[in-house]
Amino acid sequence: MSEATRNRIMEAARALSYVPSEAGRSLSTKATKRIGVVSAELTNPFFPQLIEPMREGLEKRGYRTLLITDRAENPLEIGLLADGSLDGVILTTATLGSSLPHELASRRIPFVLVNREIDSIAADTCVMDNRSGAEQVAQLLIRLGHRRVGAIFGPQETSTGRDREVGLRAGLSEVGVSLPRNLTRRGPFSYETGHRAMRELLDNPTPPAAVFCGNDVIALGAHSAAIGRGLRLPRDLTIVGFDDIAMASWESFGLTTVRCDFTAMAEAAVGMLLKRIKQPSLPHQRQVLSPRLVLRGTHGPPAS
Amino acid sequence: MSEATRNRIMEAARALSYVPSEAGRSLSTKATKRIGVVSAELTNPFFPQLIEPMREGLEKRGYRTLLITDRAENPLEIGLLADGSLDGVILTTATLGSSLPHELASRRIPFVLVNREIDSIAADTCVMDNRSGAEQVAQLLIRLGHRRVGAIFGPQETSTGRDREVGLRAGLSEVGVSLPRNLTRRGPFSYETGHRAMRELLDNPTPPAAVFCGNDVIALGAHSAAIGRGLRLPRDLTIVGFDDIAMASWESFGLTTVRCDFTAMAEAAVGMLLKRIKQPSLPHQRQVLSPRLVLRGTHGPPAS
């Protein structure tokens, strides 16, 4: 096609408000320039904070983000991801028993696991060292003199929930502190989990002096429940979270927590996925980011 | 095609893990069963709360939600919405000068304005009565005895920012209370806006005794700034928000605010859009929902 012909066509297209049809384009090139990001409810503030930098990173590289929600009540079907409309998938919410990664792998759809991982599959993965983060919390509590420690863990069928529990228990048991069964609770990573569990822990005849929470959203629920009972932090109670979402730094909470670098995690995930799309046969990568304690205002020595 | 042939084809397709190609299907039927939802940053918790019930409502009716972000720094181009991949669009963030609604209308792409509206276009619209909500706040402040009132408004180029400001001023001026210029601030609907503005207001030689905030996210920033200065609410300061997002009800805040029914708004928007897709020539509808005050723990009489 000559330059002049091309120009005349482009001009006519502009005059007619023509926009290239993605449907037509995908049939010819097979690339859709669309990436599916699978997340849990967006009303859980953890996910927007992880997803926003992924969306930005993908946008910079010319990809659009299709956000798809996967919920326990209504699990995502593979058909939604494998209908040819996506060049690749980022999974942020895989549970240890998820079949989705296996189904993506068997269909040769490029994907990356971020935030949560699965032991049973070889896949590109980017996660925090959750165990080390929780061990750091255990060491902090011990340094402060805590012996009566409680915990509100996330779900055991997620690698984040499992590894943070393992880390806390390991760190405490090194100095002979154990977690009594009546001071531990477990539930989904939600405000409601933290709120309900903290009320139960406070109803205990000898309530805990410090409570580790499986993530910040749980910790914010626990914080609210403690405030609702008239407690003042950290004078009456120590609460430590995990993730360092934006809200943790608000003066209204001043939550002591473990920082996960969402931007670094998002960038690593986007980079891995685009590499995988270009070179499907590359060996799989597993990247582990190191968390660190952020000391704010919800930790202190036990009330004497 | 005979039933037996169809069955043999379906069986072969299953054996080959075949999933219908959306790209192929869209070319033949023109319907993609995809709806674009345009929102601002998801890290602003207002948007997830509005979007989640829309996504659910669309899912129930067999539609997938493609979430697309429109940001001031990187405004959305019409090409992203008009490439044939969407059956319709829900706009949650239109500013008064937005060209997007006009471009969608001229391309005959079904769309609905929700949360924010635009005067210059005939379109299906679902909004709160923002003016009446802010008037109710003015009446509350007056009943409590407040005369030294400040405000942190949202952007004037949004109908929500504009109408809430108009309502507050109208309600106050009915009883002869005015908003001094040095006690008003304005900015994007963000935590940072509220945090910075509240610090400035508190630096005033005679700070306000009550502050109206353009939305809850601004109010949470203002709350944090006040706590950071050692103030106790409502003893030292009254703060009232707008929206009643989930966080407003947390005991850590106990924010007095104006309730907008997100679920009703989302359902109305989904209903209008699907009607419009079926019957493009229907007359346009405008639905206005009534807000109501929610009295929690951040309002009280001025310190004497």
How would you portray this structure in words?
The longest helix of chain A is centred in the C-terminal third of the chain and has 17 residues, at 262-278. Chain A has 304 residues and is of the alpha/beta class. The first copy, chain A, starts with a helix and ends in a 10-residue tail after the last strand. Helices cover 39% and strands 16% of the residues of chain A. In chain A, strands 2-1-3-4-5-11 form a six-stranded parallel sheet, with helices on both faces. Chain A contains ten helices and twelve strands. The first copy, chain A, has helices at residues 3-15, 22-29, 46-60, 78-81, 100-106, 130-143, 159-173, 191-203, 216-228, 262-278, and strands at residues 34-39, 64-69, 88-91, 111-114, 124-128, 149-153, 184-186, 210-213, 238-240, 257-259, 286-289, 292-294. At the A-B interface, helix 2, helix 3, strand 2, helix 4 and helix 9 of A face helix 2, helix 3, strand 2, helix 4 and helix 9 of B.
Number of helices in the DSSP assignment of chain A = 10
State the low-pLDDT regions of chain A, or none. Answer: 23-28
Quaternary organisation of the protein chains? homodimer
Query: What gyration radius of chain A follows from the Cα positions, in whole Å?
Result: 23 Å
| E-strand count of chain A | 12
Distance between the termini of chain A: 85 Å
Strand order of the largest sheet of chain A: 2-1-3-4-5-11
Please identify the structural class of chain A as seen in this structure: alpha/beta
Q: Which band does the percent of strand residues of chain A land in?
A: 15-25%
Largest interface: A-B, 48 and 48 residues
Shape of chain A: elongated
Main sheet: strands, sense, barrel of chain A: 6 strands, parallel
Secondary-structure element order of chain A, N to C: HHEHEHEHEEHEHEHEHEEHEE
What is the mean predicted local confidence, pLDDT of chain A? 89
Helix content of chain A: 25-40%
